[in-house]
Amino acid sequence: xxxxxxxxxxxxxxxxxxxxxxxxxxxxxxxLAHLLYGVNAGGxxxxxxxxxxxxxxxxxxxxxxxxxxxxxxxxxxxxKLTVEExxxxxxxxxxxxxxPGNASANTSVKVYIDCINAYLLDAHAxxxxxxxxxxxxxxxSADVLEQLRLLTNLETNQRKLLQIILLGxxxxxxxxxxxxxxxxxxxIIARYHLGPLAKHEVASxxxxxxxxxxxxxxxxxxxxMGKLYRLSGGIPRIINVLCDxxxxxxxAQNKEKVDHATLKQAAREVFHNPAAQRSMMRPLIAGxxxxxxxxxxxxxxxxxxxxxxAKAEAQTVAAKSAAALPTVLEWPATTPLLRSDELAYxxxxxxxxxxxxxxxxxxxxxxxxxLRCLTARGGLxxxxxxxxxxxxxxxxxxxxxxxxxxxxxxxxxxxxxVGEENKxxxxxxxxEQWSGHYTLLWRKPPVANRKIRPGxxxxxxxxxxxxxxxxxxxxxxxxxxxxxxxxMMHQLKQFQLAQGxxxxxxxxxxxxxxxxxxxxxxVQKLNLNRGQGAKP
Length: 536
Prior knowledge:
- It is a single chain.
- The chain is an alpha/beta fold.
- It has 4 domains: about 5-15 and about 200-270, Helicase, Ruva Protein, domain 3 (Orthogonal Bundle); about 25-195, P-loop containing nucleotide triphosphate hydrolases (Rossmann fold), CATH 3.40.50; about 335-440, Cysteine proteinases (Cathepsin B, Chain A); about 445-535, Muramoyl-pentapeptide Carboxypeptidase, domain 1 (Orthogonal Bundle).
- It has 21 helices and 11 strands.
- The chain has helices spanning about 5, 25-40, 55-65, 85-95, 110-125, 140-150, 170-175, 180-185, 200-210, 225-230, 235-250, 260-270, 275-300, 305-325, 340-350, 360-370, 380-385, 425-435, 460-470, 485-500, 510-520; strands spanning about 45-50, 70-75, 130-135, 160-170, 190-195, 370-375, 390-395, 400-410, 415-420, 420-425, 435-445.
- The strands form 2 sheets. The chain has a 6-stranded antiparallel sheet, with helices on both faces. A 5-stranded parallel sheet has the order 2-3-4-1-5, sandwiched between helices.
- A hairpin with a 5-residue loop joins strand 7 and strand 8.
- It starts with a helix and ends in an 18-residue tail after the last helix.
- Residues about 100-105, about 275-305, about 315-320 and about 530-535 have low confidence and may be disordered.
């Protein structure tokens, strides 16, 4: 209804699980990485839980777009079935004829299982990998879960022949903790709980969805993001519903962008007027608070802070400090805007210890000193994972574009070199003004320009061994003829998983760059307190 009014190609806040709109927060990257690990693992169960609306199904749809060619996948999204109904559905999804030529209501469980086992053995013989994905798995009964466990009993010496991925609400994890399901719980090779978005991620989430839908101007002011986070609790689906209703209200009022009153009214409509309910309670709450204050004053005795209290107080102080940060990154008035690229790249090279930067082709200069350029478009979580200084393309409140060098990044603030000045701004300013484009430098490793795969040996594998050893704080092996074996592949997959990469156990460009950057001590990282990822 409001698409043409705002110049949008499609609805930006539909609650349909469209993988194009998936905002890859660090949590969603990790969730997807766990599912990809499950697809490539040697059988068993992978568990992904999360609150209603957290994005589990959307992550799963994204997974389906990245399924390896050698995988056969069945996706069941309505699992409130009996054992026989589930087995029949599995057969239908994989195209298994059972019994031969017809699947009748009288088919026994044993016949279904025999047919499925025969299919799995044949698929394995053809080099196929079979994956069963069950959404809304909290609806499975205990006897159905036990039957699923029995299906994974078929195995070779190297792997189980069926991989099962369970997606469900938090109560699914509670179900699997029951004593009668402990055998299934022991077969879960990877599990992840997808939590809500953090407060600083909400602005990026909204901007991401608007960008995908073709928005050419900001429709939600940064000042509304705190309110939107409080109303939604960071749950993506609730954010979508609130934003959709707010845009509809803005359209109805012929306004240019959403304001505080319109968002508040949208919340009343979505939550069935909770504001009115709160207003009725305010006199009672005020009276109770006054009584409690008087009582506390009478009983107050100074006590020493516990560590938890001290930590909470420190977090409160930090939050107040973040609130005092500037919310807009501006280009210095004393410096010509035309010099933004030159000064930004000079600052980037300076971070790598290069003081004689020459204006010109930055990437050629980087190659000459053993560095490589990476120019891409991504999000804040990607910058956090890379943890390297980067030149970002920014835009001020007047629509002027300029380049600035990001030199520091934590949960609440971003530090920039802007022109010839150093500035710290709130994380919201970065989310609001950044186009998503960045350029960074990383050190070129002394390895051949090809993938490193299990079974390889030689200088490439020696380099890989040294990187993994440094990540783990251990001395590298001294052997000159190391083989990329199972132990090394396990360490590598752990690193890839922590970095939000596909844990395929091979070293391609992205993995090589992350490994090189993680242990490089010649450049100051964006966040010195950020770990290098899970230790292998």
